[in-house]
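Raw record, unedited: Acetyl-CoA carboxylase, carboxyltransferase component
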Amino acid sequence: MSSSSQASQRINALLDENSFVEIGGLVTARNTDFNLKQEETPSDGVVTGYGVIDGNLVYVYSQDASVLGGSIGEMHAKKIVRLYELAIKTGSPVIGLIDSAGLRLQEATDALNAFGEIYLKQVEASGVVPQITAIFGTCGGGLALIPSITDFTFMEADKAKLFVNSPNVLAGNYKEKCDTSAAKWQASEVGNVDVVTDEASIYTQIRELVSILPSNNEDSDSYQECTDDLNRACENLDGAAADPALVAAQVSDNGLFFETKRDYAKEMVTGFIRLNGATVGLVGNRTAIFDENGKEAEKFEDKLTAHACEKAADFVNFCDAFDIPVLTLTNATGFGSSKCDERHVAKAAGKLVYALANATVPKVNLVTGKAFGSAYVIMNSKAIGADVTISWPDTQIGTMDANLAARIMCDGKDAETVAKAASDYAQLQNNVKSAAARGYVDEIIEPADTRKYVIGAFEMLFTKRDERPAKKHGTV
C-alpha cells in the first residue's frame, strides 16, 4: 500500500513518529466473483499493524476508502482479527480508524462470516485490553456494532456518519429533518460517542486517553511520577460543587481530567483523573455547567435519570474490568420524573447499583451536596459497598427534604407545627453529623482539603482484596 494513502496518513498522525510497523501489507482480496479479480485491492482496503503512543505499544487498523470504499471483505476482516489476536496475546490496546462503505456485497457469505469473526474477537478482548474506535467517514449497518462493543468512540464532527439504518429509511424522517447518523446526534441523543471534534484533535485526545489507561487488565505498572503537591489545597472547591468536571480538574494531578461521553446525559459526569500518579475513574452528579465567565450556561435537576444511570454503570464496569479505582461525587435527591425516565429508570438504576456493588476496586464516595433517599443509596453509599465515605461540612444526608418530610409526617396539622417538625428533622435526620454518628460517613472535611484526603483514602485502599461468591457472572 502506498504510504501516501489516507489510511496510512491517519496512522502516522496518531502514533509516535516513525514507530508504525505494517502487518499484512501484501494481502489482497481472494474472491473473484463479480469480476473482483479485475479490481486492484491493495491491502484489501485496510492498513493494519502496530506502533507506540508515548512509548506504549498499541495495535492499529485504518480502513482505506479508496479501495472498494473501504468495504469489509473476507481478507480485510481476517487482518483485523489477526491484529486482535496479537493484542490479546501481548496485552495491548486496539485502535480502529473507521472509514468504510460496510459489508462487501460481492463477497456475500464470506464477508458476512468474516464480519462475525471480528465481533467474536472484540468480545474476547473486552475487559482484557482497551478498545478504541475513531470514525472519520461512514460506519453503517453491521459495522456500527464495532464501536458499540469497543470501550471508547471518537467521531469527526463533520464528515463522520454512524448508523444502523440510514436517516432516510426511518419512518417519517429524512436526513435534512433529523440526521440520525451525524456525530452530534449520536453523541448527545444516543450516547454511542465519547468525543466529537476535528480530525487533528481526535489524534491528540486518543493519545491522551491511551496514556491514562492501563495497557491491559493485569497491567499494574500504569503509574506516572506525580509532580503535583499531594497536600495541595483546592481553594473555593465547594463553589464548583454543581459541576463535578470542575471539581475533577481541581483535585486531579496537574489538572488532568479526561471526560467520557461528554455530550450525553450531562447531568452525570464520567471520566478519568490522576491522583498521586494513579488513574482513577470519576463519577459525579451535575446540576450546572458554567461558561468561561463563571455564569450558569446549563442547569440540571439533582436527579438520577435513566440515561445518567446507564452512562455511569457502563463507566464503572469498565473501571472494574481494568482495576481502576472509582471516586464518586454524590449530590442527588431523587429520580428523573419524565415519562421516558419512568419507562427506563428502575432498570437503569438497578444497573448502576449492580455495577457499583459488584465492583471490587477501591471505591471512595465524596458527598458534595444533598444525598437523599434511594438516590443517595445508589450513588456508591456505604450500604452498597463504598470503602470510604467522605463529606463536606454543609451537606445534607437523609431520606428526603426536611420540609417535604414534615408535611408528610404532620399531615393535617397547622403551619407552625409543620415548620417546627421541618426544623427538627433537618437537625436530627438530614444533618451530615447525624449520618457520621451512625457510621455512614467516615470523615467530614473542609472542601479545600479534598485532594489530600481522597489521595490518602486511595493510598490506604491500595492493597484492597475483595472476594465474591463463586459464579459465572451476574445477570443484571
